[in-house]
Write a structure and sequence with these properties.
With 203 residues, this protein is mainly β. The protein folds into 2 domains: 8-85, Elongation Factor Tu (Ef-tu), domain 3, CATH 2.40.30; 104-201, Elongation Factor Tu (Ef-tu), domain 3 (Beta Barrel), CATH 2.40.30. It contains 4 helices and 12 strands.
Amino acid sequence: MFSGIVEEAARVVAVKDEGGNRHIRVSCSFADELKIDQSVAHNGVCLTVVALHGDGTYTVTAIQETLDRSNLGMLEAGSVVNLERSMIMNGRLDGHIVQGHVDCTAVCESVEEVDGSRYYKFRYDVNPALVSKGYVTVEKGSVTVNGVSLTVCDSERDSFRVAIIPYTYEHTNFHTFEVGTKVNIEFDIIGKYLSRLMEFAER
């Protein structure tokens, strides 16, 4: 379980493909605090730490399904990736409930600077079956983009915008986004549960 509050925009130092798996080695400031089997969100994808290297780096492994559903297959040495360790249960929920289970990818369609902040518009392919299960955005609702908890504005059928303040821009990989950038999206889990309950209520 995560909150969508990114701890660090870290660097990928190496990737290695093995069969359908991709091993991703990451350098970050808290690598020496991690433990084997610990969960860390990478661009919003929950991955398990499988190796600690003692030099400020660690390795996680993404399976083929994860690579197909997210942008992790595009990572290479030098890529910037958003990191968040799992929530502490007695901590504050500063973002929203994030599972670390990416639903789909979206493409950045525009970046607009407005009075020091930036508006990003993202568009994604609509799957009617998933829409019926709550895989949608709602105005002023929550959405996770590359692991960042954000508030939706201008929610449309297959797109939405988010406003990014300078701090978020500088401390996440949003500063690398441009038109055409592919990002990971996780829709709000509460909406998914409500949609599921409505299915049973209608039977």
